[in-house]
Write a structure and sequence with these properties.
The structure holds two protein chains of two kinds. Chain A is α/β, with parallel strands linked by helices. Helix content of chain A is 55%, strand content 6%. The longest helix of chain A is centred in the C-terminal third of the chain and has 50 residues. The radius of gyration of chain A is 36 Å and the shape is flat. Helices cover 28% and strands 23% of the residues of chain B. Chain B is built from 17 helices and 33 strands. In chain B, the strands form nine sheets. A five-stranded antiparallel sheet of chain B has the order 10-11-12-14-13. In chain B, strand 27 and strand 28 form a beta hairpin. The chains are: A alpha/beta, B alpha+beta. The interface between A and B is large, with 130 and 101 residues.
């Protein structure tokens, strides 16, 4: 008896996947409920490795789920809740149609609902898992906390969202966890570090975000439902890890007030929501948690340890960046964002008590160091403080430095607001970023204001210096060259009689030449590798040295005396070298095996695109700056005759 | 008197008042008194009367109180009367519906009530001066009317003039209190006689209406909004001042007015004096009579609990049981938070092989609200301050799309390449280290007028022969590039090949179906060799008893050239039955092979030059033969068909090896001088390096972009070259090791470009110099180039 014949679709890829329709059928749910279930349970379709095999010969694109995942959904208790909800809807609609008012009332007294605690635990087995996946929950909750109430979005939801986000921000303030803050066109990006995990979220600009018609809010509310549950548990855990009351209580509160504060409305828009008052702790524990560095991992690597330590110090500096500074916010600024950013760097904040709740000191306070202003100021009432634009705060946090305030005075053209998320190894670095990096390294004094005129002058100076250097170098180079020439002359004198006497074969000559050039070009390439090719000085030096070495074996016995003679080596031009290198590269590329060739092409294209982008940006920048200069010159020229 | 009738009467009286008739007013008063009397009459007598009747009794009492009050406050009789009537109506206000039924009359009465109440209030306030009091009364009247007009009242009011008169009157009456001085019944409707018409009809006119004499009542002057604003700031009573549309004046509401308004708004009895907690008069006694009115026995029905009650209870019980009605259960909270991750036990993640969603893309400099200028589109300006940054319109949509991605987008684990393109380039030795090899174009041999199909170098390396489509064969001097001789032949030359022997100076030429052996002697050639060659071919070799087989006979005929031909340099002519493509010499120079692609089983022919004999080595056709090649050391023949290479041992007359070429259509073959390797160029752009011992896995070189035309190994140096239709000749270093396990070391070292294209052809043939690293290429552009 032979082995049983294999049938199609009974093993392998085909049994691993199930189409969406089949899954819905298997779970006996409506498509809507299935979607809701997928959202809540975090199940998503998978891309098969081989679509045709996975779909049993069908090559149309279908949504495929893992059979395992669907099997896992089968025993979910929430499915029963969905069914209950459905029957509830049927019952109520029936009762409504029959005008049985008391029955409807009775039904509405106890509508079926489900809780998602067990799902949160399933999806995030450990607390760290939950923290890692907190970006989307925070972003969505922040959005909903700012949205207007509609029939689709319940009031309760909005309040809970607001409460949870405020609580989370309070936690960040308490731990000084803010790392990056960025104002983009789309909104405010915050990056915080919570228990070693980086969490980024986006808050919209302070306007009520309006849903467009193509947005399905039902889907979003399902997500929101889960996120609210998740965020609540996370907040609870975070607060308990710090020994803070949950729900939060503010410091210096009497008992009567406490209850008041705990009420929903005060959290939504009260002193708690103002973020300006520290929270009350159960116990005061002063043991500083030392070292986030994992010593085990870094023991062997000295450099890594050093880098990590430096990073740690920088972090500490950032955490207490605004310590001792007092900020007063004008009413036109974004109070919530600024308060959050400043307070998470240990600054003190206040505003006019009529603007919003939670102000702690008055505008007249002489200890105020900075007043944040976002309108043109014609008079500055207090000389003891700086009047600055809000961007300063964000830039300082990102730079981890107190930047010079002169650039940020009201009415001044602001320096560009740079993204802290841009990778440092990116090919194109705008000049502002270069300046900032220099400041961070301490190469440029921090107090020096960054103004276009100044920077231009600096550049000019640099250029001038460089030219000077070049001039010097070329001088040296010329002197050496002269010396060499003299020597060559001598050599030629010696060589000439010899060549005349010698009978050289036509054929062998080119070969020798080739050999010579070959040996010379080697050090040239070495020079290129170290990146010193562009300087003619060093090239000359090296080739000079080499020529000495080369000349030794090339000596030719003379009739009269045995002498070492320096040969004349032809110096290849840089263009020649470049073309040679290009050719070498081309030849090497030819030898890439076929398997990698495609990848190479893709990567190459990508790199080309990047370089093109860099080129484009630098060119544009230069052009714009030139134009600016021209405009300025024109202005000056125009203004002089007028006067 | 029934209530309905009473009301009718009142409304009648109202109409009279509206008509402004003085007599009717009196009548009204009469009615009122009458009414009072009626109610007082009814008070004690009829127990079975309805509620209203009953209340009217109370109201009568109250009216008495009112009288007392009015006496305190130095009030007039008529007022009292009115007040009585008011109170009457006041009680009725308990029932809202009734009130709505007849708005007019009630409002009227209310108006009066207010007057009364006001008076009372003033009296209470303890102002002694009667004149002042009167003033106040008049004022309060005005107030009242004003206020009530706000409540959609339709009463007639005294105009300015009237009120002035009144003031005068009151001032006159300072001394003696005159009962009738303040007869409000007259005064009441003196003011505006427009009747029950909307006041807005007079909006366009300077007057409000007409007084009793028919004169226009001019609208009083009103301040503008600024005055109004100032008034609001300065006047402490501003919030209780009301504008009366009918008189066009501001009226200040007294405390009592306010109280009344308040109670009206809350649907209570307007009068503050109304006693809500008056003792209850029980008209229907609950006590069981000792003597029942009827003597009938009770029915059974009254003792048996009704059935519907039982069903009702059962239904409710069922509902409770099923949880439809829950009285005690507390509503559960939707979101309740506790320490979820408290237990150390780690639960398994439910989803298998979880792929976390990629994080949100973080913004770069370009997305900043105030980016560096180069990131902005040309001409655009960033907002000058943060305050001006608009909201992002599609913020909600972005979030929605993210949600969509999270639950709809299929996920797949993709390996991301972190390498850069540079890392993928193999590290090869520098070409400079692998010298010598040709790098530059040395000479160009010009002279042909058409495509050069084939070139061949004399084994001593001094002469180059070339055959072209212009029906010439040319002999060139290599060192100078000079054309030494040019022979006109009858047809286009397909192939030229020098005899490899040192003793002969002989060039094989292929012209269609002819193979000609020529002695292209020049003034540079060695005379001895030339003479020797001529002498060899002077006479036909002796065939002896050899009889040519039939299949050879039909395929090949050897002949001596004619006189002319001899003069041209022809020494032997071999005619083939079909057009020949190629001639290949064995290394000794005696044997040669010709390839006839259309020759079927006779497509490869072996010939012996010294004996003028030919052979057909194969009986069967194994595909269209592309080319043949002799092994450089052993008596092997490589026969190349489209997809295969067959290696035959000529001595043993056996096939040694059949190699499946890694190419779809082989164009050319070159055998390494060592004999252990061979190279194959294909029309499918591939170049394969085979090892004889391991032909399964050739080294594939894919560096040509178009069909490879010809390949060649250098005899001395580890070099090989390949030419393709794209015009590039690529020279590679191909080092072969004695160690069999070691792979050959293949590195492309130079790319040569120079030939131009002609009808998609470029370089058609290439050969190496026998001992120098020079390369010769024959191009379709009718030039031959030397590269050194």
């Amino acid at each position: 008896m032979g082995a049983k014949r294999k049938k199609k679709g009974e093993s392998g890829e085909a049994t691993k996947y199930i189409t969406r329709n089949a899954a819905v059928k298997k779970l006996q749910l409506s498509l809507k409920d299935f979607r809701r279930l997928c959202i809540l349970k975090g199940i998503y379709p998978r891309e098969p490795n081989h679509r045709r095999k996975a779909q049993k010969g069908d090559s149309r694109i279908k949504t495929l789920f893992l059979v395992k995942d669907i099997r896992y959904l089968l025993h979910e208790p929430i499915i029963w809740k969905f069914r209950e909800l459905r029957t509830f809807l049927i019952k109520t609609s029936k009762a409504k149609a029959r005008k049985e008012r008391d029955k409807v009332e009775n039904l509405y007294k106890n509508p079926p609902f489900y809780r998602l605690d067990h799902i949160v635990q399933e999806r995030y087995p450990t607390f760290v898992d939950a923290l890692q996946d907190l970006d989307d929950p925070l972003t969505l909750c922040v959005l909903f906390s700012k949205m207007a109430r509609t029939w689709r979005i319940q009031d309760v939801m909005l309040h809970i969202c607001r409460r949870l986000t405020v609580e989370f921000m309070h936690y960040v303030i308490e731990t000084q966890g803010l790392r990056k803050a960025f104002i983009s066109v789309k909104g405010y990006y915050y990056q915080v570090e919570v228990m070693g995990q980086t969490i980024t979220w986006i808050a919209p600009h302070p306007f009520t975000p309006l849903p467009t018609t193509d947005v399905d809010l039902r889907v979003m509310t399902v997500f929101l439902d889960f996120y609210i549950t998740l965020l609540g548990f996370v907040n609870f855990r975070l607060y308990h890890s710090l020994n803070i009351h949950y729900p939060p209580k503010l410091q210096g509160m009497k008992r009567g007030e406490e209850e008041e504060e705990a009420s929903e409305s005060s959290i939504v828009s009260g002193r708690v929501a103002s973020l300006n008052i520290p929270l009350q702790r159960n116990k005061v524990d002063d043991n500083d948690e030392e070292g986030g560095i994992d010593m085990h991992l870094l023991e062997e690597d000295e450099d890594k340890l050093k880098a990590a330590r430096e990073e740690q110090q920088k972090k500490k500096k950032q955490q207490s960046l605004f310590k001792g500074l007092k900020f007063f916010l004008n009413r036109e600024t974004n109070l919530e964002s600024l308060t959050f950013v400043i307070r998470s760097c240990m600054g003190e904040v206040s505003w006019q008590s009529s603007t919003a709740e939670g102000s702690t000191f008055l505008e007249t306070d002489e200890a105020i160091t900075h007043q944040i202003v976002d309108r043109p100021m014609h008079q500055q009432n207090y000389l003891s403080r700086y009047y600055i634009q809000p961007q300063w705060v964000y830039d300082c946090v990102n730079a981890r430095l107190l930047l010079p305030v002169q650039d940020y005075f009201p009415g001044v053209n602001l320096p560009a607001h740079l993204s802290p998320f841009e990778k440092e190894n990116d090919l194109y670095i705008p000049p502002e970023k270069k300046l900032l990096m220099a400041r961070q390294k301490g190469e440029v004094p921090i107090d020096l204001p960054q103004k276009m005129e100044d920077s231009d002058e600096d550049n000019e100076k640099e250029v001038y210096d460089w030219k000077k250097m070049k001039r010097l170098k070329t001088k040296e180079f010329k002197a050496k060259k002269r010396a060499m020439k003299e020597k060559e002359m001598e050599n030629e004198k010696v060589n000439k009689p010899m060549e005349e006497g010698k009978e050289t074969e036509e054929v062998s000559k080119p070969m020798e030449e080739g050999k010579e050039t070959e040996e010379v070009s080697k050090p040239m390439e070495e020079g290129k590798e170290t990146g010193e090719v562009s300087k003619p000085m060093e090239e000359g030096k090296e080739t000079g040295k080499v020529s000495k070495e080369v000349s030794k074996p090339a000596k030719i016995p003379l009739r009269k005396k045995m002498r070492v003679i320096r040969g004349n080596v032809a110096q290849p031009k840089p263009a020649v070298i470049e073309s040679q290198e290009r050719e070498e590269k081309m030849l090497a590329v030819m030898m890439i095996p076929k398997k990698k060739k495609r990848l190479y092409k893709i990567l190459n294209r990508k790199e080309k695109r990047q370089t093109a982008k860099v080129k484009r940006l630098t060119e544009k920048r230069n052009l714009l700056e030139e134009q600016k200069k021209k405009d300025k010159a024109n202005k000056l020229a125009g203004s002089v005759p007028e006067k | 008197m029934s209530e309905k009738r009473k009301r009718e009467e009142i409304s009648d009286s109202q109409k009279d008042i509206l008509s402004g008739d003085g007599e009717k007013v009196n009548y009204m008063v009469n009615i009122n008194t009458d009414d009072d009397g009626d109610s007082s009459n009814s008070e004690g007598s009829d127990i079975d009367d309805d509620d209203i009747e009953d209340v009217s009794g109370d109201e009568a009492e109250e009216s008495d109180d009112g009288e007392v009050d009015s006496l305190d406050g130095d009030y007039t009789f008529d007022d009292n009367e009115e007040e009585g009537e008011d109170d009457d109506e006041e009680e009725e206000k308990d029932d809202n519906e009734e009130r709505e039924d007849d708005n007019d009359d009630k409002n009227e009465t209310e108006n009066k009530t207010k007057v009364k109440v006001d008076a009372k209030g003033d009296g209470d306030s303890g102002i002694d001066d009667p004149s002042q009091e009167k003033l106040k009364i008049s004022k309060s009247k005005k107030n009242l009317s004003g206020k009530l007009s706000g409540l959609r009242l339709q009463t007639t009011k005294a105009d300015n003039v009237a009120s002035k008169q009144e003031n005068q009157n009151s001032s006159q009456d300072l001394g003696k209190p005159d009962e009738y001085a303040e007869d409000s019944s007259d005064e009441e409707d003196l003011r505006n006689t427009i009747g029950n018409v909307p006041v807005k009809w007079y909006d366009e006119y300077p007057h409000l209406g007409y007084d009793l004499e028919g004169k226009q009542i001019i609208k009083p002057k009103r301040g503008d909004t600024l005055d109004n604003f100032l008034n609001r700031l300065e006047n402490p009573d501003f919030d209780r001042t009301v504008f009366d549309k009918q008189t066009g004046q501001d009226v200040r509401l007294s405390d009592e007015d306010l109280a009344t308004v308040k109670s009206l708004m809350t649907n209570r009895v307007p009068s503050a004096d109304y006693d809500y907690y008056a003792p209850w008069v029980d008209h229907f006694t609950h006590e069981v009579m000792e003597m029942p009115l009827t003597g009938r026995t009770e029915s059974k029905k009254s003792f048996v609990p009704p059935k519907y009650e039982a069903t009702y209870v059962a239904k409710r019980a069922e509902q409770i049981r099923r949880g439809l009605i829950q009285y005690t259960k507390k509503k559960e909270e939707r979101y309740r938070y506790y320490n979820l991750w408290s237990d150390a036990e780690r639960t398994k993640r439910g989803i298998s092989n979880h792929l976390p969603a990629p994080k949100i893309r973080l913004p770069g400099h370009g997305e900043s609200y105030n980016p560096p200028i180069e990131y902005l589109p040309l001409g655009a300006e960033p907002p000058d301050c943060l305050r001006r940054v608009p909201g992002w319109k599609s913020f909600v949509k972005d979030r929605w799309e993210r949600c969509l991605d999270l639950y709809c987008a299929p996920r797949q684990q993709v390996m991301r390449v972190t390498a850069s393109a540079k890392d993928l380039i193999p590290e090869l030795p520098k070409p400079q280290d692998l010298r010598p090899f040709p790098t530059v174009e040395g000479l160009i041999f010009r002279g042909h007028r058409s495509i050069i199909r084939s070139i061949s170098i004399h084994p001593l390396g001094k002469f180059l022969a070339s055959g072209s489509d212009d029906q010439t064969v040319k002999i060139w001097e290599i060192s100078t590039g000079r054309c030494l001789r040019s022979f006109d032949v009858e047809a286009a030359v397909k192939c030229v090949a020098w005899n490899p022997s040192n003793k002969l100076f002989l060039l094989g030429i292929v012209l269609e179906s002819k193979v000609i052996f020529m002695n292209p002697e020049t003034y540079l050639t060695d005379k001895v060799v030339v003479q020797q060659t001529n002498s060899v071919f002077k006479e036909e070799p002796d065939q002896g008893d050899y009889i040519q087989p039939e299949r050879v006979k039909t395929a090949v005929t050897w002949r001596k050239p004619t006189g002319d031909e001899w003069a041209k340099g022809y020494r032997v002519v071999v005619d083939h039955f079909r057009s020949v493509k190629q001639i290949v010499w064995h290394k000794q120079g005696d044997y040669f092979a010709t390839v006839i692609p259309e020759g079927d089983h006779r497509s490869v022919l072996m010939h012996q030059l010294s004996r003028w004999r030919s052979q057909v080595p194969f009986n069967k056709c194994k595909g269209r033969v592309q080319t043949v090649q002799f092994h450089p050391k052993l008596p092997f023949l490589f026969v190349v068909t489209q997809g295969h290479i067959r290696v035959y041992n000529l001595q043993k007359q056996r096939m040694l090896k059949k190699v499946q070429a890694n190419s779809r259509w082989i164009s050319s073959i070159a055998i390494h001088p060592g004999g252990e390797h061979f190279l194959i160029g294909g029309y499918d752009r591939k170049l394969n390096w085979f090892e004889m011992e391991c032909t399964r896995r050739p080294h594939l070189l894919r560096y040509h972009r178009t069909a490879v035309r010809s390949v060649a190994f250098h005899r001395k140096y580890p070099l090989f070259a390949s030419a393709a239709d794209e015009g590039r000749v690529i020279i590679s270093h191909g080092m072969v090791y004695n160690d069999w396990l070691k792979d050959p070391f293949l590195v492309p070292v130079k790319e040569l470009k120079g030939h131009s294209k002609f009808e998609d052809y470029c370089v058609l043939d290439l050969t190496w110099h026998p001992y120098e690293p020079y390369l010769f290429t024959a191009g379709a552009d009718s030039t031959i180039r030397l590269w050194h």
